Amino acid sequence: MKTFHHIWQNLFSKILVLLLILPGVSFAQKDEVPGVLQSFEKLINNNKTKYLVSKQKNDLKVESLKDQGDFVDMVIDPFFMNTLLFRSEKKFLKLLKKDECSLAALLHNNLLNAFERPLQNLLVQIKNKNGKNKSILIDKDEYLEELYKTKCSTNKELNILYSKKNIKKTIHGLKFEVPKTKVACEKVFQKWVENINTPYLCKIPNTLKRATKASKKLQTNPEVNFSQTRYLRNVISQAKMYKKEFPLFVRSYLSNLCDGLEKVENFCLEYLAEDAWTKIINGELPNHYLSYKCKNFLDKDQLLPSDLQKCADTFNKKPDTCINAGSKGFPSFFPHEKCDRISETLNIAGLKTDYHDCPGRVDNEAITNVHRIIMHLNPSSLQNTPESCMNETHQTFARMAMNYNKDVIWPLKICFFNPAKEVTSCESYIPGNNFNSPDSENMVISSILKITKGAPDKMKCHLTSTTKFNPLRLQYQVGCFIVYDPQKCTSSFCPRKIYWNKNEVKGIRYVGSPNFSYFPTSLKESGSSVERILERVHKFKNKPLKNLTEIARFFNKKPHNILHGVGCIEDILPQFYSKSYFNGCRPIPFILDGNKKLNGDTYFSVRLPIDDIHSPRLLNWNKIFNAVNNYKKIHPMDTWTLNGLVKSN
Amino acid sequence: MVSSNQIKFLLLYLISFPALALVETKLPLLLTKQSIFNLRWVSLDGERTYYQRSSGDLILSTKYRVIEILKGKEDTNYTVHSTRHRKAIVFSKDENFHTWLGIRHPKQIYVSSFNSEKKPDLLGWGIKPQLHLADQWVSYFDPLTRVIHLVNTKHKVLRQQIQLRNTHNPYFVPEVTMADKDTIIYTDINSKGQTGVLIYKKLLKKVQATMKVSDVREKIEFCNNGLELIIGVFGTSVSKQGSQIYTLPIQKLDFKQLSSIYKSKLNDIGNIECDQSERKFYFSKNITVAGEKQRFEIAEIDIKTKKVKLVSDLEYATELINLDGRLLIQHRGHYYVLKGEENLRKDDIFKL
């Protein structure tokens, strides 16, 4: 009731302002003009009736101002004005000011509604030289053009600036300030409300919303008439252009601004929200922090903007969701952290993670770690499917190793008896399915079968799981299939069976395990450690960082700086892994990609290579220091294994 | 005279290597003449010492003699495990310790009789080897196949395998203990992701589920002191599930008769370690005050009186290691002695 009263008052203040300010509106008051004592419902009905009666009585057709002869003034019919005010979204009425030009800007940008949608025509009253008034229905654009002749020249300029041709440049020149405090936010909000650009900017989110509805309408109701279809298609194409031209941050900012125009709190809530999920929606944090988790959670390949919002809402309202959800098909450590803890960590994280890997399928954790480092420093596009993720992780590492020294670093081979040469031959392979890479496991097996079984040149083997493979099905009766049990398959341990045209192929052996030093373990072999190869192949420099001051300085230097290290898992996750033995340690590599102070302690965003890439952990310095220091004690070269990674010049 | 520049350099050096700065504690440091980090096992009386060499060998030093027990590649890493029964001793050997960084990386598991000076017998590949039933049985876990292996230490042909059902967590390592030669108690994860306690009856070849946690974020730990099975249920994430420890007579194994011995609203780390000489056990207890730095100390619980006593003062003690009855805490690269002789300098290895 209180809210209604509030709206009521606001609306009437707007009406009164318009009645008083809009020149000429007051001259036409022969009929009863709605008063404060009328009920809202009655007012709307009254307006509608008046409009329809007026339309019937005058048999209103769209007329042209050119046919009206000379007239001295033109105003929007007061009842039609009321209709506009009551039928339009309240948030946009906030942009109405004490002049006609703000109304014109709202009309120009299709932010006002009457009974017909979209609003094409306006009921106006024109006053001729003799002082007589006449109500006519005219095209909105004609009204605006007439208005610009005498008033609102700024609007005309703005129309040019926000035309299809110039809009990108215009918006590029605007500053979308993200407030950090409540006071700052209120100031920013007030500036936008007073800004003459705002109606033009609000057209963008409004069109995006209309486009979603338009697409649905076209899909569900194909029998809409031609003009309607043309209008809907126009809205969709305009929305496409906006999506293409403006980054998510701008779109989210404008959406938040225009949706929150009614109340400053609505606008500020988003910017003062501390959770990463809302920040992602606002475009303040990278979209991929949420999108992969969201796709997996909703079980969708493609996400609509509304899906991301849905996920953000769920993760905020039900933080336990993340414990189980978000990594189906991409095995990793279980349980994950809660959504609120992940959100807290993502707020400080800097690792670029626009992909989804599957740590549980890769048993040398260094391979996953290196994959993540390279994807951070030299991002590339991946397929990110449960079938491809193992191969993709190995590919990154293997490419680096093969570029350096194939035989020393990459020992995984498939061996077979070559009947042509009468010797046993071995070929390097990268575990997993990848039809685009001749080194991938399925392609290496394909080429072996061509040699040993005379398989056709175009034949390509498929890596498939025991759960999918069914030799009774037609699709599995012809061709080559490498069958593995996903529950028992990692990169170095994966019992497989190879079938070629239904028959099991024997005599093909998988040999080797991926062993290599992460940090040099001896002077003799220091050149073949991951640290050195990263330096040589990818031109990264390693800088040992030994205390919190150095680490804090390193993180502050560049927002995406990362550290990588090796430490004992028993110290990193003591709640899950115990040492049990004297000098026991299971070394594991990790990445630190952000830090923050909390309860008098320093915490890090930690990416363990056993964790889902989109579920980082927030761990304190004690854990990291103990882990690195205890590993240092048993390291052959007594090396401090925590380094900052920087790109060489 | 020391110049101010030298003092500055020394201060800078101390700041740069915080490991050198020891914490203030009443606990004595474990003292050795040489690097403590090559030691793998030292008997309480100091007569038998196992240590590893960077050349890859595991050496037994006893009665002024040095015996090569196992041989491996350069930088091979070993662990050694025994119990107060001193019938058998278990070794794990990892030739790729620094070159295959993986929690699931299996190691070679060996066993020999406690006093043997011969090369031990290879049992298989796995992690977390443990002795059970007065050293008559040894268990280890193969994380790649997710199978618990049990082997009789005397008659190696007597073997038992238990396949875990866990498909939720590829990094899960089960707790394993034995009530008698036919009864194996272990943990597994069910289809909902909850950890539970199961009993495998060898003769019946049947698995019986006994208890499970209510929340997937809780873990279960065991400690078997020969009389009681001590079962800890600890919350593992920052959200508060709390901690609870129960005892159960090992001979009856009636999980309806679980007796609660300790409860806390905070998530303790756990890592329960039974004292093999007394009816006491230890674990890492969370003593963090809300809004302050995380603090964990080792707590001792007397099973008879149920009294809980904090026995460490390191501010951050997450683990207790039992080295032949000597109780040690590893903290920031140092070993502190909670119980037992702290001076290993008299061990004969260091007289070599």
Reported for the largest beta sheet of chain B, the result is: 7 strands, antiparallel
Structural class of chain B: mainly beta
The largest β sheet of chain A comes out as: 6 strands, antiparallel
Order of helices and strands of chain B: HEEEEEEEEEEEEEEEEEEEEEEEEEE
Overall morphology of chain A = elongated
Tell me how many strands of chain A there are. 17
Helical coverage of chain A, percent range:
40-55%
Number of domains of chain A: 4
Question: What's the rounded overall pLDDT mean of chain A?
Answer: 84
Euclidean distance between termini CA atoms of chain B: 39 Å
Structure description:
The complex is a heterodimer of chains A (649) and B (352). With 649 residues, chain A is of the alpha+beta class. In chain A, 45% of the residues lie in helices and 15% in strands. Chain A folds into 4 domains: 160 residues, no CATH class; 165 residues, no CATH class; 100 residues, no CATH class; 131 residues, no CATH class. Chain A has 25 helices and 17 strands. Chain A has a 6-stranded antiparallel beta sheet, sandwiched between helices. Chain A has a 4-stranded mixed beta sheet with strand order 1-4-3-2. In chain A, a hairpin with a 4-residue loop joins strand 3 and strand 4. The N terminus of chain A is likely disordered. Chain B is mainly beta and 352 residues long. Chain B has a domain of 110 residues. Chain B is 4% helix and 45% strand. Chain B is built from 1 helix and 26 strands. A 7-stranded antiparallel beta sheet of chain B has the order 5-6-7-8-9-10-11, with no helix packed on it. The longest helix of chain B is centred in the first third of the chain and has 13 residues. Classes of the chains: A alpha+beta (649), B mainly beta (352). At the A-B interface, helix 24, strand 14 and helix 25 of A face strand 1, strand 5 and strand 25 of B.
